[in-house]
Design the sequence.
């Protein structure tokens, strides 16, 4: 690697100083919104948490930018900045989870009432926020690189994000808005397809994590849980063929899990 010049370091430091000022201001905003949550009554808590998610996502973006700048100007990753980006992103997702719960697979009736706290937030605004979060996760993953020690931790991050995305969608309203006459049909269709994709991808990634990295049954169980939740979504929207295909896949994966468990039990008995 070429030696980093003083000029490169100075250019980088000057830019980072600008970003740090914005970051400090954003952290102050986050603290101000958090103080609102502590006030008696708690009215408007859902909207406050939406703002918290937006502010911490903004933080995430600046930390990502610092790493991008480090790579561009000096040819090296800024591990500290990537770590800060990851922490801010986790907070952003958690603020949304605190509104709509982290239930992976549950009847809509179990979390429907929580959506009342953000009933005035439009499809467009929810979907725009979620797309930004998804982009940020991808950017941080790319920043770390394919061989990073954090590679498999992002499986859980994508999973939490997928759940929040689903739980922020009013499924009853979405069902109605898929009608050809609805002015919200396009956004409802795009949002729903994104959720389906996230759940399928998360299931596949948990399965890969199990097979390649951890061999932990819990990861395989999570993979099956996400498939089961996805099947529930297909069933709700009357997509029978997709639900039937997933039923077969779930049965195959469950059989594989059971076989692996029995094999390990047998191996342990022989030791």
Sequence:
């Amino acid at each position: 690697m070429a030696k980093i010049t003083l000029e490169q370091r100075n250019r980088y430091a000057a830019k980072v100083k600008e970003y740090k000022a914005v970051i400090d201001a954003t952290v102050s905003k986050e603290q101000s919104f958090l103080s609102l949550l502590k006030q008696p009554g708690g009215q408007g808590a859902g909207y406050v948490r939406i703002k918290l998610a937006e502010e911490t996502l903004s933080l995430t973006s600046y930390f990502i930018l610092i790493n991008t700048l480090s790579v561009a100007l000096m040819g090296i990753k800024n591990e500290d900045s990537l770590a800060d980006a990851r922490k801010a992103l986790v907070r952003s997702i958690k603020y949304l989870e605190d509104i709509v719960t982290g239930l992976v697979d549950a009847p809509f009736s179990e979390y429907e009432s929580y959506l009342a706290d953000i009933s005035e937030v439009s499809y467009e605004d929810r979907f725009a926020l979620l797309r930004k979060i998804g982009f940020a996760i991808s950017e941080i993953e790319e920043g770390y690189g394919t061989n990073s020690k954090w590679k498999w931790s992002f499986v859980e991050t994508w999973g939490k994000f997928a759940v929040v995305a689903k739980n922020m969608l009013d499924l009853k309203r979405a069902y109605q808005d898929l009608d050809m006459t609805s002015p919200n049909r396009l956004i409802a269709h795009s949002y729903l397809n994104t959720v389906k994709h996230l759940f399928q991808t998360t299931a596949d990634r948990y399965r890969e994590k199990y097979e390649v990295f951890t061999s932990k049954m819990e990861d395989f169980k999570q993979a099956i849980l996400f498939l089961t939740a996805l099947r529930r979504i297909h069933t709700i929207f009357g997509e029978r063929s997709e639900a039937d295909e997933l039923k077969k896949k779930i049965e195959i994966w469950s059989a594989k899990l059971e076989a692996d468990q029995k094999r390990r039990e047998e191996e342990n008995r022989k030791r």
Q: What stands out?
A: The CA atoms of residues 264 and 270 lie 10 Å apart. The chain has two domains: 1-168, 171-260.
